[in-house]
Amino acid sequence: MNESVVTTEKKPREEKTGVFNGRSPSPNGRERKPKVEVEAAPAGPPKSVIREYFESAVVTVIMALFGMTFIVQAVKVPTGSMQNTITVGDHLLVNKFIFAPGPRLPILPQRDIKRGDIIVFKYPGNPSDPERDRQEDNIPYKVNYVKRVIGLPGDKVEVKGLHVYINDQLIPEHSATGQ
User: Fold this and answer.
1) Which residues contact 75 (CB under 8 A, 6 or more apart)?
2) Is 62 helix (H, G, I), strand (E, B) or coil?
3) Statement to judge: residues 100 and 137 lie in one domain
């Protein structure tokens, strides 16, 4: 009378203690290479607070110089020629990309200069009045001029008295004075 007994209870899996199998089979049946974790060795003593601030300041200065050289320029308005729009001593940030020369790139906001735009350029000097160019407020290629564009390439610009003519047509007073 040997009867076999069938049980439906699951036996708990036996845990192997002290045994580590570094290779477990992958789903395709091949054995995986063991993963080796390497602890990073300390790179030296921890950084001091002064060194952290110094590194942050250096990175900030480099980014500011890059931005001022290629992206924006801070300008102080030197003359009252743009009165009623921009006054003497106003500070402006100028976008250097908008009217940049060279090929048009789709990621940059470049466009051609239009009548009425306000532009900033370096004073090129006056060959007919070199004495005036020696004055401190008018040094060629150092003084920034802030002006409104009234003439485009091919336009005929004439000043007769206090009136400005473009292609023999009088422009309204408020356009010429910046109002």
Assistant:
1) 91, 92, 93, 94, 120, 144, 146
2) helix
3) yes
Which residue of the set 147, 156, 160, 175 is catalytic?
147
Give per-residue pLDDT as tens, 36-81. 666 666 677 788 899 999 999 999 999 999 888 888 888 888 777 7
Spatial separation of the C-alpha atoms in residues 98 and 95, rounded to whole Å: 6
Mark whether 163 and 144 lie in a shared domain: no
Q: 143 with 160, same domain?
A: no
Domain count, the chain: 2
- Whether the pTM exceeds 0.70: the reply is no
User: Among 171, 125, 133, 127, which residue's Cα sits nearest to residue 149?
Assistant: 171
Confirm whether 48 is a catalytic residue.
no
Would residue 158 count as lying in a domain? yes
Q: Is residue 12 part of a domain?
A: no
Residue 34 lies in a domain: no
Residue 20 placed within a domain? no
Q: Catalytic one among 47, 81, 122, 175?
A: 81
- Concerning whether 142 is annotated as a catalytic residue, the answer is no
CB contact at 8 A, 95 and 164: no
Q: Which of 113, 112, 133 is nearest to 122 (CA)?
A: 133
- CB proximity list for 99: less than 8 A, separation 6 or greater: 110, 111, 112, 113, 117, 119
Dmax over Cα atoms in the chain, in whole Å?
Answer: 133
Quote the domain boundaries for residue 169: 153-179
